[in-house]
Structure formats: C-alpha cells, structure tokens
Amino acid sequence: MSWKLYIIETKAGKLYTGITTNLTRRLQEHKNKKKGARFFYFSEPQSVVYVEDHISRSSASKREYEIKKMSRTEKMMLIKK
C-alpha cells in the first residue's frame, strides 16, 4: 500500500500537513466538518499544494513529523521546489 504525505493550504492561507492512502477521499473528508480534521473547523481547505509518496506508513509519519516542525518559511520553500 502506498502512503502519501500532503500539505493543504486553507482559504485563510494556513498550511495543514497530513498522511493518507487515498488523497482524494481524505480531501473530501477534510471538506466535510464531521469527518475532517478539527484544524479545518475555522479555516476551510482550499487546495493540496504539496504531495510526497512513501512506501510505508512509518516513513510517511516520520516525514510528517519533520515537516510539522518546520517554520512556515521552510514549508513554503519546500512547496515551491
């Protein structure tokens, strides 16, 4: 099973990082306030701005942790690559 790490930008310009096996499904869940992350209760998701493929949940989770520790500036540089 392939895992994806993703970054979503909200309409307010905030960045959310997560992992999933089905990006299309997860984005729809985030748009549905009952199934999505609480992060999106106050700022609606706009678009997926970054995606990385990973071979395991473990590697995706480790990378998610690394990205969540980054500053906004570092995340924006990663997105623009």
From TrEMBL:
CDD domains documented for this protein: GIY-YIG_UPF0213
Q: Which residues are in the GIY-YIG domain? A: 1-77
> Gene3D superfamilies, from UniProt?
GIY-YIG endonuclease
* Pfam families assigned: GIY-YIG
- Tell me the SUPFAM superfamilies matching this sequence: GIY-YIG endonuclease
User: PROSITE patterns from the xrefs?
Assistant: GIY_YIG (PS50164)
Per the record, the similarity remark reads: Belongs to the UPF0213 family.
Q: What is this protein called?
A: GIY-YIG domain-containing protein
